[in-house]
């Protein structure tokens, strides 16, 4: 049966996770959602004002899209904390890790997961699996927990288990690893001069250890010329996504690109080309988070390329099937959390504060014993 333009548009929409500027569901956002039918949305601090307002904004997104939506947020704790102004600060991954208490690692995931779920989300773009190396300290800071891959995997394993207890999906990032990157990929393209042997033994070790536990993996915007022979971001590289992540590591979950609105990838390709190339390289979905005009430009570029290139059309059809199959076997995506009452917000704020205090006390005690 020949693929129609309507089929292509539906498939292309399923591969898009989009951000937007609004905090209220106005006519422009409703029309964009109706037209693109995205696979997911992601909110940032600009969208999040109050617990009930956030939940209702997500509900409106769900209403405008025919298939279950991934409702995503970056909620790591520490410097990446989208709920800080609503619920108070959550402790960073590095602070939690410094306690040395694996029960606390899991509690970190569970408490964050309860907040994520309570406000209406079902996907947390965490944990960070990058190694905490000196080179990336200025870019990653407290987001990375340890220079040791085994310790990174130990924290992430428990954090993911905590998220899972609350019905929230996790996403490991930023494959294949930004630990040796001296530049912030939000603004520039890090070029990491590290051999394949060292990357496999170090940066890739957490992904190998957790390949069956990670629902999603996000591919970062950094170049590894010793592996690919060129300065192309991993997010646009079939070598990294198809050969290494799918082939050598054997990962079977969903593969996402990091935000294609970031300087690290836009320095290598315009948004239209980046959207096409990340899918061609093997990604299942891609994020466009910052500029609404880029959301539509990326989506339309994917549609045009699928209409022009049959091989690419087969690629996005296969990716769309993978996304829909994932959603079908994840039943809680169809069961959104009830609207948050005032008491829920108060409880979540209290739990985050108590977690922060517990982390502070245990980290101090661990430091005293060291």
Q: What would you give as the CATH superfamily?
A: Glycoside hydrolase, family 3, N-terminal domain
Outline, from the CA principal axes? globular
Indicate the CATH class: Alpha Beta
Biggest beta sheet summary: 8 strands, parallel
Task: Count the E strands.
Answer: 10
Percent strand: 5-15%
- Regions with little confidence, pLDDT below 50 for 5+ residues: none
Q: What portion of residues is helical?
A: 40-55%
* Oligomerization status of the protein chains: single chain
N-to-C order of helices and strands: HEHEHEEEHHHEHHEHHEHHEHHEHHH
Number of helices: 17
Strand order of the largest sheet: 6-3-2-1-10-9-8-7
What structural class do you assign from the helix and strand content?
alpha/beta
User: Any idea what the radius of gyration is?
Assistant: 20 Å
CATH topology, by name, is TIM Barrel
Number of domains: 1
CATH architecture classification: Alpha-Beta Barrel
> How many angstroms separate the termini?
67 Å
Question: What would the average pLDDT be, to the nearest integer?
Answer: 94
Question: Can you give keywords for this protein?
Answer:
single chain, eight-stranded parallel β-sheet, 10 strands, globular, 17 helices, TIM Barrel, alpha/beta, two-stranded antiparallel ribbon, 370 residues
């Amino acid at each position: 049966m020949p693929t129609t333009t309507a089929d292509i548009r539906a498939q292309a929409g399923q591969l898009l996770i989009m951000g937007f500027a609004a905090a209220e569901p106005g006519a422009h956002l409703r029309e964009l959602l109706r037209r693109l039918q995205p696979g997911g949305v992601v909110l940032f601090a600009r969208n999040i004002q109050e617990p009930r307002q956030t939940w209702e904004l997500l509900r409106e997104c769900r209403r405008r899209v025919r298939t279950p939506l991934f409702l995503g947020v970056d909620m790591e704790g520490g410097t990446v904390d989208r709920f800080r102004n609503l619920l108070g600060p959550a402790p960073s991954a590095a602070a939690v890790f410094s306690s040395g208490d694996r029960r606390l690692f899991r509690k970190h995931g569970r408490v964050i997961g309860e907040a994520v779920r309570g406000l209406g989300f079902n996907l947390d773009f965490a944990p960070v699996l990058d190694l905490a190396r000196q080179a990336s300290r200025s870019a990653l800071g407290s987001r990375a927990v340890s220079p040791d891959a085994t310790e990174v995997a130990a924290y992430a394993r428990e954090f993911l288990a905590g998220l899972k207890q609350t019905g929230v999906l996790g996403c490991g990032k930023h494959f294949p690893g930004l630990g040796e990157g001296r530049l912030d990929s939000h603004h520039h393209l890090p070029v990491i001069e590290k051999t394949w042997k060292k990357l496999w033994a170090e940066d890739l070790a957490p992904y190998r250890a957790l390949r069956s536990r990670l629902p999603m993996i996000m591919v970062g915007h950094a170049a590894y010329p010793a592996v690919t022979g060129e300065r192309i971001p991993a997010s646009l590289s079939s070598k990294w996504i198809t050969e290494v992540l799918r082939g050598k590591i054997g990962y079977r979950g969903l593969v996402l690109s990091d935000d294609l609105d970031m300087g690290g990838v836009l320095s290598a390709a315009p948004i239209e080309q980046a959207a096409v190339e990340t899918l061609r390289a093997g990604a299942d979905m891609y994020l466009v988070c910052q500029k609404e005009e880029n959301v539509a430009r990326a989506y339309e570029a994917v549609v045009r390329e699928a209409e022009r290139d049959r091989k690419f059309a087969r690629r996005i059809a296969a990716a769309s099937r993978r996304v829909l199959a994932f959603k079908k076997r994840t039943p809680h995506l169809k069961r959104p959390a009830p609207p948050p009452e005032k008491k829920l917000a108060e409880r979540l704020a209290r739990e985050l504060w108590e977690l922060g205090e517990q982390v502070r006390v245990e980290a101090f005690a661990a430091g005293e014993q060291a």
